[in-house]
Give the backbone structure.
Amino acid sequence: MPMGMCAEYLRLGDGEVAELRGLADAGDDRATGEVIFGHFEAIGDHAAFDLDTAWENVLLALTGNPLDGQTVGDPLGEAILGGERVCRQPLTSVLEPGRVGEIAEALETVDFDARMADNGVAASLSDDDAADLRRRFSELAGFYRGAADAGGAVMVTIA
């Protein structure tokens, strides 16, 4: 994946998940992509989170594995890259409500500072950038907690 891509997270209801899966099963990325971009325009701020380009450093801090796709089954990796793929353009996946709860718990219990240090992220950042990354991680964890509490699925899009 090229650097500079942005990651966005949207809370979805069951009907929206079914619609995306149906389009994905039909194999039409263009139609699926149009629906996905429609969600971005229609969703309220309370149900969305934009990690922007910070997702790359958060992923590296949490997993130590930059962009290698080895995150399936790992709630910390899936928090950033998602789970079941529904579209390639934009790169989009869906996390079911039960998995969203597991991810929220994993994010709440992880020692992010220790992960940043262990995986070499802290050493590569200025103090201000490290503080900003901690804040972004905290906001991501809060988004997942809100989605889990609402019983919602999450759509992860990296474009």
User: Anything to note?
Assistant: The first strand starts at residue 7 and ends at 12. Strands lie at 7-12, 48-52, 84-88, 91-95, 153-158. The first helix runs from residue 14 to 26. Helices lie at 14-26, 29-42, 55-63, 75-81, 97-109, 112-118, 127-150.
